[in-house]
Amino acid sequence: MEDFDSIKLYTLKNSSGMTVKVTNFGAIITSILVPDRDGNMEDVVLGYNHLKDYINAVDKPYFGAVVGRYGNRIAKGEFTIDGETYSLATNNNENHLHGGIIGFDKVVWDAKPVEGDGWSGLELNYLAKDMEEGYPGNLNVKVTYRLTNANELVIDYFATTDKKTPVNLTQHTYFNLKGEGEGTILDHALMLNAKRYTPVDEGLIPTGEMPDVAGTPFDFTTAKAIGCDIGQENEQLEFGLGFDHNFVLDKSGDSDAMTLAARVTESDSGRVLEVHTTEPGIQFYCGNFLDGRLKGKSGKTYLHRGGFCLETQHYPDSPNQPNFPSTILSPGEEYRTTTAFKFSAK
User: Fold this and answer.
1) For the chain, what is the domain count?
2) Residue 5 is labelled as binding a ligand
3) Sign of the four-CA dihedral 281, 213, 200, 64
């Protein structure tokens, strides 16, 4: 890695002591310390203390990273724009996942501290060159992390291109509100603001349907424990080895407005995480591929379902799904989305 020496770790801290650590390698969030109901601080995200562990981790868990140019899957690593077909790496069985072999999670971003009224932050920039990982267009990407004094981490994504190209950026942090390495997340209570979801085939590619969640294990419209229905006999749970699905968020009024997407509560600590976003979808993944082989920052083993991800996004495989909202960015347009992770305790 030629620019190894340029990799740094940045620390954001607000007036109440909440602390977020970010490295410009992969724009990775390595740590988030937040208080429980008694004010005790705990690191609630999975990750490592050393860069080499992120680089060498088995099964590529994407801990804490920004993933792109296209987060999630593209069927058979192919899409067509204006009659021209583009081929991408097939790094997830026969499909393309999270931007390819060297996606945005594995590059060094330019970084500079920024601040404003009531927040401090980090601005990260990366130029993905034309045909990098097979994608057309020089894509200028900017991601900002802003930590507010209201215990909110706001993530803004921006991008421009000189050729039509699919863009779908998201954040792949794994959370455990009891603390990283503190057992499983199956007892966390989850609410998803979504009455529909996008079922998948055996390769986890959406079928194109968007059925109601009512009467299925995928109904999180009222908060319930993540583990409540995960053991049910259900073809979709078999395909995902648990929950690993995109949910269609209920958007009212302005589709680009910030909407409550999810709320997670952990009763022992009292910690609450709310996710708000401008995006139309959210991928709920509950650590099905964690299997105890990975040890984290504190030396604790990351158990099966020891963390959950809530990846705000456009839907998987949108370039090949005409009935999904488009993810194609054209020259002269600006890609712009915002997601906020808000922490509290009760």
Assistant:
1) 1
2) no
3) positive
- Closest CA relative to residue 258, chosen from 341, 175, 142, 317: 341
Profile the chain (346 residues) by mean pLDDT over runs of 10 residues: 77 97 98 97 96 87 97 98 97 96 96 96 98 98 98 98 98 98 98 98 97 98 98 97 98 85 98 98 97 93 97 98 97 98 97
User: Closest by alpha carbon to 141, among 162, 156, 157?
Assistant: 157
Q: Let me know: does 64 contact 52? Beta carbons within 8 Å.
A: no
CATH code of the domain in which 235 resides: 2.70.98.10
Q: Which amino acid appears at position 246 of this protein?
A: N
Annotated binding residue 173:
yes
| Active site amino acids | 172, 311
Q: Which domain holds residue 311?
A: 4-345
Q: How far apart are CA 275 and CA 12, in angstroms?
A: 19
263 is in an annotated binding site: no
Cβ-count burial of 32 within 10 angstroms (0-12 exposed, 13-18 middle, 19+ buried)? Answer: buried
> Could you tell me the pTM of the whole model?
0.97
Structure tokens at 37: 């109901």
Distance CA 176, CA 305 (A): 10
Cα gap 14→45, rounded to integer Å: 18
